[in-house]
Amino acid sequence: HGQLRTTFYDTTCPKVSKIVRGIIKEALKKDARIGASLIRLHFHDCFVNGCDGSLLLNNSATIESEKEALPNNNSARGFGVVDDIKTALETACPATVSCADILAIAAEESVSLAGGPSWKVSLGRRDSTTANRTAAELLPGPTEDLPSLKKKFSNVGLDTTDLVALSGAHTFGRAQCRTFNNRLYNFSGSGNPDPTLNTTYLSTLKGICPQNGDTTVVTNLDLTTPDVFDNKYFSNLKVLKGLLQSDQKLFSTTGDETVAIVNKFTANQTAFFASFVVSMIKMGNISPLTGTAGEIRLNCGKVNDDCTGSDGLLYSST
Ligand code: HEM
Ligand SMILES: [Ca+2]
Ligand SMILES: [Ca+2]
């Protein structure tokens, strides 16, 4: 996978990052959450069949979309902005930039626009012609324990430092009540809330997510700086103010190596940013399609038709 290169579009689409950034910047004016939503799409793409744009495919006669798998359904968002980016790129450099690369660039630009680090994105991914609903059902879930989360990361070549650093993406964005309300009233059948949840924060969350209330209501993943990419996510964990069970476990699993990593990232935002960049590049390298494999989709939601070659160029004519 050393085949991805930061210079991949230097001659064929030199403005690609600028174009992506411009569209995200515009979208952020109306939706402060959109950057968070976009980086999550890259994560959910890369963990299923690699970073190949598989997540973006809609249902069709031949495609069982990943969008409808439980972790994505009524949860993954930002597809309209991905389409807007694709449209702009098809005008600037037709049939050149893959949808998988759009997600990788959008992730980086979103982090950077929110005050986080910026980095040179490795590029040259091509788009799949298939999706994998079954694998998408197995994406990491918020109530999974730490060994299980570690296993899912190691399955794609990511280690425990990567798990902690990448979880730091929960420094921005939102989550629905249904993803954490297991902690509020009857945690693991105890009849009590999760003991690793700060009691003041617990009251706040109970107000947002009442028992038998609307479980699709959203709240900030980072209560301190909800739209800023910083290390507050980690300092929250130290005062038991992580939102998801999978977040809080990183600090509250006594004796686990994750605790020291959380402490380090809390003490040193520069160390967090440096690790985050390394881990994002690693994640972006999960089994990409390169060379002549796959295609350059012209519409991110569907596979090219028979009139489109594997180079993404249209071969049909009258
Ligand atoms: C460690 C395993 C992870 C679990 C269990 C997990 C779980 C979740 C859940 C349950 C939500 C809320 C979804 C909803 O309510 O609709 C969420 C949101 C989010 N996740 Fe994760 N996540 C994990 C790792 C990651 C990684 C690796 C990234 C990116 C590098 C990431 C980025 C985000 C972002 C930015 C949001 C907010 C999205 C938005 O506001 O639209 N997560 N995650
Ligand atoms: Ca994929
Ligand atoms: Ca934050």
UniProtKB/TrEMBL annotation:
Residues annotated as binding heme b: 170
Catalytic center residues: 44
Cystine pairs: 13-93, 46-51, 99-300, 177-209
Binding site for Ca(2+) 1: 45, 48, 50, 52, 54, 66
EC numbers for this chain: 1.11.1.7
PANTHER family the record matches: PEROXIDASE 22-RELATED, PEROXIDASE 72-RELATED
Catalytic activity: 2 a phenolic donor + H2O2 = 2 a phenolic radical donor + 2 H2O
Record-linked Pfam families: peroxidase
Family according to the record: Belongs to the peroxidase family. Ascorbate peroxidase subfamily.
Location of the protein in the cell: Secreted
Domain Plant heme peroxidase family profile: 3-304
Function: Removal of H(2)O(2), oxidation of toxic reductants, biosynthesis and degradation of lignin, suberization, auxin catabolism, response to environmental stresses such as wounding, pathogen attack and oxidative stress. These functions might be dependent on each isozyme/isoform in each plant tissue.
GO molecular function term, any single one: lactoperoxidase activity
Organism: Quercus rubra (Northern red oak)
Cellular component GO terms held in the UniProt record: extracellular region
Keyword check for Heme: yes
Binding sites annotated in the UniProt record for Ca(2+) 2: 171, 222, 225, 230
Record protein name field: Peroxidase
Cofactor: heme b; Ca(2+)
Keyword Electron transport: no
Domain of life: Eukaryota
Keywords: Calcium, Disulfide bond, Glycoprotein, Heme, Hydrogen peroxide, Iron, Metal-binding, Oxidoreductase, Peroxidase, Secreted, Signal
Any single biological process term in GO: hydrogen peroxide catabolic process
Annotated site, Transition state stabilizer, chain positions: 40
